[in-house]
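REQUEST ID: PR-0412
SUBMITTED BY: lab tech R.K.
PRIORITY: routine
TASK: structure prediction, single protein chain
INPUT:
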Amino acid sequence: MHAFRSPWPGLFVRVVAVSLLAWAAGGSTQAAAGGDRPPNIVVILADDLGIGTVGCYGADHFRTPNIDALATRGARFTTCYSAPNCGPSRALMMTGRYGFRTGMTGNDKPAVALLEAGRNTEVMIPKVLKSRGYATASAGKWSQIPLQPADWGFDEYIRTKASGAYWPTPDRNTYMLNGKEQEWPEGQYMPDLSERFVFDFIDRHKSGPFYVHYSLAHIHTDILLTPDSEPDSADLFSDNVAYMDKLVGRLMAELERQGLRENTLVIFTGDNGTYGNEAPRSTIGGRALCGAKGMLLEGGSRVPLVASWPGHIPAGTVCNDLVGLVDFLPTLAEVAGAEVPGGQPIDGQSFAPQLLGQRGTPREWVFVMLGRHWYVRDAGWKLTDEGELFDMRDAPFAEREATAGAEADAARRRLGAVLAKLDPASGKLGDETGKHAKKARAGSAK
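STATUS: complete
OUTPUT:
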């Protein structure tokens, strides 16, 4: 018996006759002969998980064997960028548009209100994919995005009212399921409850295609005991990293059990860097990353990105191209054969060809902002909104203020032209800083 059986089991199942996508050697996309539908898509979004907390990125103190297995059997992207905080990152991912366009520049109330005001003009991933017959579901954290998941196109959803929701408390003892408030039973671990929702949704829509936005609570604070923790555990943070990884493994096992693994694209990523209290031990090769969550530094926005799709993504692929969460909407649209929304700028750039081991058209730069501050970064240099130029050759461990010279001058002109064209200051901005934005904005010479 399924805990979340819909009263209308077949309502959202759409079996459509469309072609699978194939990428030609030059990175272009065309329909592949013989395909009968696009792939299922599951995006796993971890909370506050930077690269220094993931094994396959070289983490010294944490083990993530299931995430590592996804990379071994698929692709790992080394330079993926989010916003430095959860709300703007999630809006980036879902709309494919920078925060100064949607208004979601931070977690502050004015920024959230600006995104809500754009409800009738902003289009999120589920609506794009539904045009190709996808059943869509959101599970887990949603609190920084306004309204309900259904308002943005999700057919079904389960969500909590805040971040880091693991166990019920006297003042947090309900959750939302498809628009209805549900009692949160004592002793029920919310990540497991969300998992059961996801498995049930997959089971009911396995004739596909389906899209699941799986937003994990881990590893956001408060860091509490997991079902696997010893009562006297001395390292609850590691316990939570391990349980998060276990959830990834259980999802993959469920897809295998359902016979869906070969036609399911699974992408794992994070919404921003590791939380500051744990950043010092989230080292790689004995070195701490520069910055942490909430900072406009590498450690605030450089996040893991791992993708697996057996028979399509070459095993063991490592891609060093610049990518960002803003690229998810056009990438998933290309994979599904859907149209990217028109009528307004889409800042994302599809990395679908790179997923399949093709060259594609790599990004030349990434743009990152929080509140009323931002920077643009290419492979070697970073220019901030205040004109500070940094040498990024030792990133993500250090960002050194650039010295004068022909190379630095060329980088300043090149990146300055990007910022001038984007013109973030003329867009929709939230409050004066954006939550946490006052912390170490620009660079570090350590």
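NOTES: The two ends are 56 Å apart (CA to CA).
REVIEWED BY: pending
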